[in-house]
Amino acid sequence: MPESKGRAKRTYTPPSKPAKAKVGNPPWFVPVMLTLMVVGLLWIVVFYITSQRFPVEAIGRWNLGVGFGLMLAGFAMTTRWR
Length: 82
What we know:
single chain; 82 residues; mainly alpha
């Protein structure tokens, strides 16, 4: 009895690798983060050094809130830093 020919096996091709997702932050992220923290700190220091007359005299003690708000925004950005 004749022997049947086997099917030709295809050569192995590995599956394509999925594209890697970009990990990291845009180049502006770290400078903005640091700038917010430094500006907030300077805002509070200027407020105390000038006997509560500057940076904005009209808002009084809310200058502390502005300074701490700027620093808090910079700190919040550190949680997203990769």
